[in-house]
Model the fold of this input.
Amino acid sequence: MSRAVAAVDVLWAGAWSPPELDEIEARGALSILRCDSALRAVSELPRGRVRVALVAGDEIDGRERDAMQALHAAGAETVAVLYRPALAHRAPHATREGADATLQLPSHPGGVEQLITALLRRGSQSLLQPTSTSAARKSANAPGGARAASDTVAAAQIVGHTVVPSTPDSLEALDTDDLHDLPDETDATDATDGPGSGRPTVPAALEIRRAAAPDPVGPPDRRALETLVGDAALVHRMVSDLDRLLDRVLDSFRVRSTATRSSLMLLDKARGELLMQRAIGLPDRDAWTPIPLGEGIAGRVARNGIPLLASDLAEIGAEFESWDSASPARDAYDTRSCLVLPLCGGEGVAGVVCLADKENGEPFTDTDLRSLLFLSDQSGQALENAVKLRQMRDLAVIDELTGLYNRRYFQKALARETQRARRYDRPLTVAIMDLDHFKKFNDTCGHPAGDRALAAVGEILRTSLREVDIVARHGGEEFAVILPETSPAETNGTKAPFPFLERLRQRIEDANFEGQEKLPSGNLTVSIGVACFPSDADTAEDLFQKADDALYASKGHGRNVVTYRGRPVTG
Done:
């Protein structure tokens, strides 16, 4: 690479190269400069002459900040990092360290070009020019023109309200007279993909009404693309907080699409269901029902990983009477147009965004689709990383055997809840529980039976208490519970001051545990000690100690009782 090189649009820095970049270069739409390493690119970059720098993620892994600063200082207007699946989790870090955007490969067809277009428009004006479908077909028939044809058509083509990937063959094969003959599903893939590539297959025709495929339109205007790039960067910075990220992703789609009704679902791969996470303006609470993978529009999009745009749902078919399988009445929506986008990460579809009822009452168009594909890719990667991060954090604070919080989390939660109770002058109760004669139970029934008993007690605790209560396995056979907004009930000497703890104690006594007949009492029971803030203690440490003292008092009172302030209150 020479410093004498004329101004270039795109610099590629990496030992490998995405196939789509070769296709863009062959088409001559952009001037592309290549370098086999990021380090060499920085040292030889023509200062001020590169508009977009694309960097292979594995080239800068662990040195993202230095690479971003060096590339920008050397004259790159914008920098994006492209990741293969093995390093997809590094994308948020690259964004935090100064990358303008990141992209997981393989992306949707045309994803690399769309990213370049967005970044070019962010820096100045795009040199990518849209080409009509007819021109694309002619170029596909020309020598060496097959690959060019697939790139002149946008990432997804709308055919009779259903989006399918564009390939050179499909441009000729999808004649509007033959649309009704399309099979329900096909194994066609992009020409660059081979078997096992992991790309989604072309979805079903979905009872397509015969209609001419619209000519592709150009990318969205510069301001819109700058906004989308900004949104993408922001969602990557929020991966440490899944709840905030979900809010931000849905809000970005809602604002950019002007949809008045929208929802975001995440895919539970273990259960094969889409679970609603956020929704705005849905007409029916039943829409929060889990959606099986492959059912309804959202389920079909999640299974195939291909977006779907419908100008009128009535033309798609009876099985898609609504924009999800919850099937709220059509009359509840203002229009019959919807746009459903998959959120794809490195391991496939992470979720689905559904949009309906534009503010102006018009149907969604392919312009809406094309402008949001970039955001859907970036959001999918961010959500996948955020879910993984939450799972890792959960593993650090969750007891594997019982599924309850562990001692470490309980101690932090107790300090937090005590502070909160003090700040807002609210009551707080702590209960410490210990299974009676559990060592003897383990010795006589065996540790596997003991583990099953602990897991069963954990389930009883989880299902007996409120969602706001914090339940933990404190160690061995000891459990601890934080009960916010809870104080002793007025008893007048006739009722237990903590009836819910009494019911919980009774549930454990009545449960059937394998081998419990070998215990002195004939069944497995629990002793409970209780203390309240602020009446019994005003610090987290003292509150826990008071509850622990009450627990030992329960043991002294013969076990299988609830003790408060030194006396049994079971009754």
Remarks:
- The chain has 17 helices and 19 strands.
- The mean pLDDT is 74.
